[in-house]
Amino acid sequence: MANDSVIGDIPSLYDDCSVGTKILMAGRNISDLMHEKGISWGWFQGGFKPSGTIASNDNKAVCGTAHMNIACKNVTDYVVHHEPFQYYQSTTNQSPLDLDL
After folding, report:
1. How far apart are CA 17 and CA 9, in angstroms?
2. pTM listed for this prediction
């Protein structure tokens, strides 16, 4: 993190699917401003469906789904930095949900 910006794939403190050293962002974000004005919103990003849970760890989500990309490389679907609201306590979805949209 530099100048209050996330650089690289740094895991979020508030995300079940994050592993390793974790960070959080402080302050307000656009969601906080929309909530104050009564504006509903949503953020949709692929790979948010957990592949399972760990019962021995308070049913913590496991985000292990992957797919073959166009370059024939196996890539993990869930990437925390594609979920910017996961870095803020006020907007986190700590246990990713299967919304089946």
Report:
1. 13
2. 0.63
Q: Tell me: the pLDDT tens digits for 2-56?
A: 666 767 777 777 777 777 667 788 888 898 999 899 998 887 776 666 777 776 6
Q: Please tell me the distance from the alpha carbon of residue 34 to that of residue 71, in angstroms, as a whole number.
A: 39
C-beta of residue 18 within 8 angstroms of C-beta of residue 95? no
Whole-angstrom distance, CA of residue 12 vs CA of residue 80: 7
Work out whether the CA dihedral 10, 12, 15, 16 comes out positive or negative: positive
Count of all residues that appear for the chain in the document: 101
